[in-house]
Amino acid sequence: MCTDHGCASFIDKAYRCDQPEWAMPHQAEARLRVDEPHEDQLLERPTHLQHTKQPFPGYHQKMEVLLGITGKDFTIVASSKAAMRGATILKAQDVKQRQLNKSSLLAYSGEAGDTVQFAEYIQANTQLYSMRNEADLSPSAIAHFVRGELATSLRSRKPYNVNLLLGGLDPITLKPSLYWLDYLASLAPVPYAAHGYAQYYCLSILDKHHNPDIDLETGIKLLNMCTDELKRRMPIDFKGMTVKAVTKDGVIDIDFDDDKVVKSA
Amino acid sequence: MVGKDCVAIACDLRLGLQALTVSNNFPKIFQYGDVLLGLTGLATDVATVSDLFRYKVNMYRLREERNIAPSTFANLVSSSLYERRFGPYFVSPVVAGLDQKTGKPFICGFDSIGCIDFAKDFIVSGTATEQLFGMCESLWEPDMVRLDLDFRTLFPPGIFFYMMILLKNGQLNHDVECSTIMHIICTSDLNFTNASYQSTFATGFDEFFANNLNLLDDLQCPEDLFETISQALLNAVDRDALSGWGAHVYIIEKDKVTKRLLKGRQD
């Protein structure tokens, strides 16, 4: 507010005031009072903007954990069980995963409505393909299909805000694969991957301990190291993980101890 | 980067979200027939644009029953990007190839809305452009040719020295001129300095090359270009926090394209 000179209230107008800069003692204060908060400080969109799309994932969306690890003959896909809306946990047994066909699994995080809508759209299309052709799409084919859909959506009026991990096992060669996709439709084939804040904690652990020849048991051990670190360092309780693995026997559920207590430093 | 009768294009392999590296196996060079396209910028657009050109070039090949020429492809890139003038793909492409008819090297770069930047030396693009400009500016020279000769086998016994001659503007035919010799590095068991060496032997070079034309077969044009572009790229990305993690280098010659993987620093 620039009250001294009687000019209209906010900072952009204060700059237009006839007085020289040194004659405006309240300018710094005015800058702080500009009523629109910096975008970083927003958890909820302000009411007057709520009809528009949030252009980037909010903090609570980045708090969702998605993890993927490949090994010798398997791909582990894990996702956190907490369904969040702002600072509230609405559900503690959420499964942020969809099985696409016998040998591929899609894990998703991002904006509430978009995630399930998009994942089920992909699921329906891969299943339709399997029915029509009596052959499953390979994980690589699905990954590129998903990227295409997400990339088209990105340039549309209302893009999907979804981050994905696609784990799979090639039905013929039995080679495991893992694809990392973000809401901008960037696609990367990777040996191990994470989404959101989990990336900062888990990727360094996996850099050190992962190698492509590990067996499923070692994979689960690595996953435990990652979740332990997340429990130690992340400021919220993500309510444990849903863990599944794609193996030559199809997609299997993996028992995972969510109640393990990890002491912080 | 342009060499003598060859051209090279190279990229790093990092995919990152600001400071976080997501993947260290994300190539940014795509091959369409004999033409190579490098794309830096937003990863999603790198994929979208490379797929788009794969489609367009395949359609061109079906229609014309021949490969697309580098300069034609450059114009295709330009017009395709300008189509999105007010909602551009966030990429800065680089095109490299050899002219199908004349065999002349062709390179050019673009901004994100398709303005072509033709060059006869080198084109850089991406986060490390400043570093790359510096490296290329200092390492590149026209018609890079390196001639490795063991003069022990060429001169009368008694004079033992090995020299590497870097020819500048080398006319690779009967009349190689002495004035094209830029560097002479000699290690000798006789105490020849460059100056005394030149006064002793330089006048004989015309005659020497005229009599030893078979030596010109040993000229290492593509290898020298490979060395130059690789050193330029690796040393540039080492001074850039946002790129690196290995590299792909393509050398395009008249009858072949060589792709090499450089491991590079993984940190």
UniProtKB/TrEMBL annotation, chain A:
Transmembrane stretches, start-end: none
Domain of life: Eukaryota
Keywords: Cytoplasm, Nucleus, Proteasome
Any single GO CC term annotated in Swiss-Prot or TrEMBL for this entry: nucleus
Gene3D superfamilies (UniProt xref): Glutamine Phosphoribosylpyrophosphate, subunit 1, domain 1
Function of the protein: Component of the proteasome, a multicatalytic proteinase complex which is characterized by its ability to cleave peptides with Arg, Phe, Tyr, Leu, and Glu adjacent to the leaving group at neutral or slightly basic pH. The proteasome has an ATP-dependent proteolytic activity.
Subunit structure: The 26S proteasome consists of a 20S proteasome core and two 19S regulatory subunits. The 20S proteasome core is composed of 28 subunits that are arranged in four stacked rings, resulting in a barrel-shaped structure. The two end rings are each formed by seven alpha subunits, and the two central rings are each formed by seven beta subunits. The catalytic chamber with the active sites is on the inside of the barrel. Component of the proteasome complex.
Similarity remark: Belongs to the peptidase T1B family.
Protein name from the UniProt record: Proteasome subunit beta
Automatic annotation (TrEMBL), chain B:
InterPro entries, per the entry: Ntn_hydrolases_N, Proteasome_beta_3, Proteasome_sua/b, Proteasome_suB-type
One GO process term, biological-process aspect: proteasome-mediated ubiquitin-dependent protein catabolic process
Localization, UniProt: Nucleus
GO annotation, cellular component aspect: cytoplasm; nucleus; proteasome core complex, beta-subunit complex
Protein name in the entry: Proteasome component PUP3
Keyword Nucleus among record annotations: yes
Keywords: Cytoplasm, Nucleus, Proteasome
